[in-house]
Specification:
Blueprint (H helix, E strand, L loop, with lengths): L12 H14 L4 H20 L2 H10 L3 H13 L2 H28 L7 H4 L6 H19 L7 H8 L2 H13 L2 H28 L9 H42 L7 E8 L5 E9 L6 H15 L3 E9 L69
Parallel strand pairs: 2-3
Antiparallel strand pairs: 1-2
Helix pairs in contact: 1-4, 2-3, 2-5, 2-9, 3-8, 4-5, 4-10, 5-9, 7-8, 7-10, 9-10, 10-11
Length: 386
């Protein structure tokens, strides 16, 4: 079991040999590897266009890209040139294969716009590097312990190698260098972070002497330093955008009459555009806002922030329905059996009326007996016939 006393203490030769054999086997570019990678890339590409996190998670679980990375990590600290070449070849071939599949899929889905799940993987930060380092460390520890190897599925979900690889192909298919390059940086961040962290954990667990891993240590430091610069700048932009968004949100609510009695949902700020783009989303009726108000708010924000910006307002229509006061006068009694108002229940049928345009035939006049008619009760004066 791993404990602090294992740091720099060599493992047993049979454990070393067992790990090397297993890593050599999983680092091979086998038919199974490409089947799993192709399937996961297809699922990830469809999930990205569906904007479905659940589908993307399914693609992460079956992705086999963690395998060659473990081979790279072990070979880098043991100076195993054969394993290093094999793992690197598998990784390069798998990456090219995944990009080509996502590129073909994106070509067939040209009518679908880029979703937030796609765009969210084009601006990596130091947070993504932190996730990759943690996932690589846990992945290497799980691979070295057979009793907890089932946890690798969770590690694969955490680091998410296939989604950024798919976004690279999507960006190339759409001709968007910003999307493709941003996703490529995220993919490279995950690869380097996993490999460096996994190599560090394996070194601490005693799978290689320190003097043999000096080259790998210096290479890891160089790769991390190369990634920290762009990731740090992206992180800085993210922090500044969040701060500016909070400040603009406060100004709109407290300093403007337009937004005082309006439900403000969000304020989005994009600093990399010129002029800076600010989009406020509110709930209300379109008739409540006018272009002159938007222009006045834009001038107000420019003056108070000191930045050249373009303000846009996004209105989500809302219909408000109020309840009426219910009294005994306007209450209609309900039939408990049918749950319908009693006023609509069957009523006694009225006499049939003639169709419109027709008149009913006149009823015969009633004959009233006149005084002295034969119907009165007088004696019969007729003589009987003989």
């Amino acid at each position: 079991m791993f404990s602090p006393r294992h740091i720099f203490k060599r493992v047993r030769p049979d454990d070393q040999l067992s790990l090397e054999i297993r890593f050599e086997n999983i680092s091979r570019p086998t038919f199974e590897f490409f089947i799993l990678l192709g399937s996961s890339t297809i699922i990830a590409t469809l999930g990205l266009f569906q904007n479905s996190a659940a589908v993307i998670i399914g693609a992460m679980i079956i992705a086999p890209l963690m395998r060659p990375l473990m081979g790279l990590a072990l070979s880098s600290i043991t100076a195993d040139e054969r394993l290093f070449k094999r793992a690197l070849m598998t990784l390069v071939a798998g990456s090219a294969f995944g990009i080509s599949i996502s590129y073909a899929g994106a070509q067939l889905l040209q009518s679908i716009q880029l979703t937030p799940e796609i765009l969210g993987r084009t601006h990596p930060t130091l947070l993504d590097l932190g996730v990759a380092l943690a996932a690589g460390a846990v992945g290497a520890y799980c691979q070295s312990r057979e009793d907890i190897r089932d946890s690798l599925a969770g590690v694969a979900i955490a680091v998410a190698l296939v989604p950024p690889l798919s976004v690279v192909g999507i960006g190339l298919a759409r001709g968007s260098w910003a999307v493709a390059s941003g996703a490529a940086v995220l993919y490279a961040t995950n690869l380097v972070g996993i490999t460096v962290a996994a190599a560090t954990v394996l070194l601490l667990m005693g799978y290689s002497p320190v003097n043999k891993a000096k080259t790998a240590i210096f290479a890891s430091i160089a790769f991390l330093a190369f990634l920290v610069v762009p990731l740090g700048l992206s992180m800085r932009e993210l922090v500044l955008e969040n701060r500016l968004s909070m400040e603009i949100n406060r100004l709109l609510k407290e300093k403007t009459h337009t937004f005082k009695n309006v439900r403000l949902q969000s304020v989005e700020v994009k600093r990399f555009k010129t002029p800076m783009d600010v989009v406020a989303t509110v709930y209300g009726a379109e008739s409540e806002f006018h272009p002159a108000q938007v222009k006045a708010v834009q001038d107000f924000l420019v003056k108070n922030t000191g930045m050249n910006l373009q303000f846009r307002l996004r209105v989500i229509p809302v219909t408000e329905i109020r309840a009426i006061e219910v009294t005994t006068e306007n209450t209609i009694p309900m039939n408990p059996e049918t749950q319908y108002p009693e006023s609509v229940q069957s009523q006694p049928s009225a006499p049939d009326e003639p169709p419109k345009g027709e008149t009913s035939p006149p009823s015969p006049p009633s004959v009233q007996p006149s005084p002295g008619s034969a119907t009165e009760n007088y004696p019969d004066t007729r003589q009987p016939e003989h």
